[in-house]
From TrEMBL:
It holds the Pfam family YgjP-like. Residues 17-220 form the YgjP-like metallopeptidase domain. It comes from the Bacteria. InterPro entries: UTP_pyrophosphatase-like, YgjP-like_metallopeptidase. This is M48 family metallopeptidase. It comes from Pontibacterium sinense.
């Protein structure tokens, strides 16, 4: 009987003194000091195989609860709320939120499958909401933290919620508006903290904790929502 080999990424660092395995949605990373050889890593990962598989299974089970299904009367997330999705045909494409309902109107002139068209319109609605909401929250946290980004881009990422480059420009994933508002705020504070500490050092996390004390809980909550990154 052969055992399937685990896929993992090796990340070496001259600053790191200990080895660690990080199991994340869709990937396993082995973080090691720069001098550790591949043979040792292979043996260590083999020893940890059962633990890694258990953690992957747990993440997969948690993630199933956050998969989005586009169907009549299905529920979709928006900033910690649940919106009920419905659609009908009309003169032109349109999306309207009324309370806890999201109504989509489909133009009769479209030829693509109905669900595909609804999905595209819902995505466009999310993107529009994200552009205004994330900009507003970034301004809010800039005032509180005193850390000011050089600019903001709201875009699509497939493996992350946000980033900050070495010029101080912050990019945020439009899919963040499908997460609760406190998780959105955590991501924004996280990226702003990189303006002062362009790393994930103890000082970086201490700065994040100054403004978001429960950051670790919020970070774990976002990990469970990884299926949203593929909507």
């Amino acid at each position: 009987m052969t055992t399937e080999r685990l896929a993992y990424e090796i990340v070496r660092s001259k600053k790191r003194r200990t080895a660690a395995i990080k199991v994340e949605p869709g990937q396993v990373r082995v973080l090691v000091p720069h001098w550790v050889d591949d043979h040792w890593i292979e043996g260590w990962v083999a020893e940890k195989r059962h633990w890694i598989l258990q953690k992957q299974q747990r993440l997969a089970e948690q993630g199933q609860a956050f998969e989005i299904r586009i169907a009549q009367q299905s529920e979709i997330p928006f900033l910690g709320q649940t919106l009920r999705l419905t659609w009908q045909y009309g003169a032109r494409n349109q999306v309207d939120r009324v309370g806890d309902q999201l109504h989509v109107t489909l133009s009769r002139r479209g030829s693509r499958p109905e669900v595909e068209r609804v999905t595209d319109l819902v995505k466009s609605w999310y993107q529009g909401q994200a552009q205004s909401y994330l900009s507003e929250r970034l301004q809010h946290w800039q005032q509180i933290t005193g850390l000011v980004a050089s600019g903001l881009t709201v875009k699509s990422f497939r493996r992350r919620w946000g980033s900050c480059d070495n010029r101080g420009h912050i990019s945020l994933n439009w899919r963040l508006v499908m997460a609760p508002a406190d998780q959105v705020d955590y991501v924004i504070v996280h990226e702003l903290a990189h303006l002062k500490h362009f790393n994930h050092s103890k000082r970086f996390w201490a700065l994040v904790a100054t403004f978001v004390a429960q950051y670790n809980t919020l970070r774990l909550g976002l990990q469970c929502r990884y299926p949203l990154l593929y909507f």
